[in-house]
Amino acid sequence: MSTDEEESDVKPEDAGEGPEPYPYGKYEGGRDDQLDRHGFGRAILPNGDIYEGSYMHGKRHGKGLYVFKNGARYDGDWKNGLKYGTGEFIYPDGTRYVGEWKRDLKQGKGIYYYANGDTYEGGWYKGFRHGYGTYIHKSVNVVHTGNWKDGRMEGPGILDYGCYKYHGKFDRNLPKGPGCFVFEKKFMQHGFYVNLRNPAFDYVGADKLALDDTNLESPEYRGNPRGIVPLWRARSVTLYNEELLPPEPLDLPIVDSQQSLVDILGYLEGLDHAGAAGKGEAEEEQHLTSPVTEKGDATEELLANTPINL
Known about the structure:
Blueprint: E1 26-31, E2 37-44, E3 50-56, E4 59-67, E5 73-79, E6 82-90, E7 96-102, E8 105-113, E9 119-125, E10 128-137, E11 142-149, E12 152-160, E13 164-171, E14 174-183, E15 187-197, H1 206-209, E16 228-239, H2 259-269, H3 298-303
Antiparallel strand pairs: 1-2, 2-3, 3-4, 4-5, 5-6, 6-7, 7-8, 8-9, 9-10, 10-11, 11-12, 12-13, 13-14, 14-15, 15-16
């Protein structure tokens, strides 16, 4: 169902009191003793959005489909007027998220399918990639598996280039510190990454290039830090030894200590944000760029001029 199509053939069991006047939009469906929307119903909001599904005492609650006038749609669970549980959100450009929600935000486990073909599957917290997850860069066939924080790679991770892998730690999407490249489980190149300013960006103010930028509203915050490039410094090459690998990323649980309090406050204050035309849904629409060099002849470059200890 969309704004350009006919309404669903599914009809409510109870037409209720009929259409409601502005500013509540048009509604057909069940009502409770207080004449609030209750049970199954269909509503056309004043802004042109459409909702069809379950209500409880005036709020979307249970299963329901919400279609935004811009073409986006959410089909899934609701609680006290908010997306809460499991559901699928499809964006106007075709990207979509399938997974868990809490208080109108992606939270828990879920899969995000990007318009460019990239995918991310793993943990989410308050709308951003968070926890253990796997991001696939389709254009270069590179797979990143590791830990995430506030939408960025953070902590232990593995970059899989197919013919070789990098094991190490990441800092805001970029590899940083000691790590190693593994070539088909035969050889290991040990070294470390340093993050340096790209001379080509010297004309940009240092405040915009700082790695410690904590401005959550800046457009570059969820991507790679602007003007910073990772540089690999090789130290030695050895035969493959699993004991020499850096710590592996772990799937750690996400603790939401304020869940109960926020849920209670949301219910008491009557928070109902789900009809806000998906303003909070765009945080993760931008795909990531691969943090290190694309694969190709990198194997020869990495092994060249490196001391070998066998």
